[in-house]
Amino acid sequence: MATQASMASEREASLKTKLETEVEKLRKENEELRRQVEETTSAQQTAARKAADELAAAKRDLAESKQKAHASNSDLMRRLENAIKQRNDARESLTMSAERVKELEAENKKLREAGPPAEAHRPARKYLASKATSALSGQ
Length: 139
What we know:
Elements: H1 2-114, H2 122-137
C-alpha cells in the first residue's frame, strides 16, 4: 500500500504540476487577450474620435457652404431685381419717348398743314443770305 500511496502521491503531484502549468498558460493567454482588447478598444476609440472630428469638420464646411451659397443667391437675386428694375425703367422711358415723338409728329403735322407764315422765315433767310454773300466775297 505504501507503493500505491506513493504512486498516488506522485500522480497527485504530477497532476498538480500539470494543473499549475495549465493555469499559468491560461493566465498568460488571458493577459494577452486583455492587452489585445485594450489595443483594439484604444484603436477603435481613436478611429471613432477621428471620424467624429471629420464629421464635425464636414458639418462646419457644409454650413459655411450653405451660408456662402445663400449669400451668393441673395446677391444674384438683388442683381436680378436691379436688372429688372432698369429694364422696366428703360421701357417706361422708351414709352414716354415714343409718346413724346408722336406728340411732336402730330404738332409738326399741324404746323405743316397750317402752312408757314410769310414772315416766319425772314430772319433765317436774311442770315443765310448774309452767310452766302460773305462766303462768296471770301470773308
